[in-house]
């Protein structure tokens, strides 16, 4: 059987400490003491110093507004190889078709679904080979970090690649 007493003492001490900190912030410096466990007393200043009430510092990647992706494409042919920067909301960067690329990623962005998620494990994929092209996409999208790799090694990977055209180059065979 477990004991509730230590947890209750902790809750009472924490409640008293919170009340003292709130009171000190509303009325200035307070010399009151918050009662701790087993009759021990602790100054309010010591309680406030024990745990920081300030929010964590803002990270540099959180200061950047809008969405930013870096796309590196290899083995896709001279016209498509390279590293491109893409900024969305507002659009821009060195990507050859920034507006359409942003719309392609927006189109695949859904609540509670990663637009850059890998193909599901155990999926049934056709045994087609789409060529040696690879892509690596990094950055931030919808406030979340992105680090995704793409290839065209089977039907599932080809479909995943084609879903993000024109963010990734269109390597589908031309219609005859």
What attributes does this structure have?
globular; 31% helix; 7 strands; 5-stranded antiparallel sheet
Characterise the protein shown here.
By secondary structure, the chain is an alpha+beta fold. Helix content is 31%, strand content 22%. The protein has five helices and seven strands. The protein has helices spanning 5-27, 44-50, 60-63, 98-108, 155-163, and strands at 33-35, 41-43, 67-74, 82-88, 92-93, 134-141, 144-151. A five-stranded antiparallel sheet has the order 5-4-3-6-7, with helices on one face. α1 crosses α2 (44-50). It is globular, with a radius of gyration of 27 Å. The chain starts with a helix and ends in a 13-residue tail after the last helix. Residues 28-41 have low confidence and may be disordered.
Summarize the structure.
The protein has 176 residues and is of the alpha+beta class.
Number of strands: 7
Biggest beta sheet summary: 5 strands, antiparallel
Rounded mean pLDDT score? 78
Coarse shape: globular
User: Element order, helices and strands?
Assistant: HEEHHEEEHEEH
Secondary-structure class = alpha+beta
**What is the end-to-end distance?**
77 Å
How large is the count of helical segments? Answer: 5
The gyration radius over C-alpha positions equals 27 Å
Task: Determine the strand fraction and express it as a percent band.
Answer: 15-25%
Low-confidence stretches are 28-41
Relative helix content: 25-40%
- Read across the widest sheet, the strand sequence of neighbours is 5-4-3-6-7
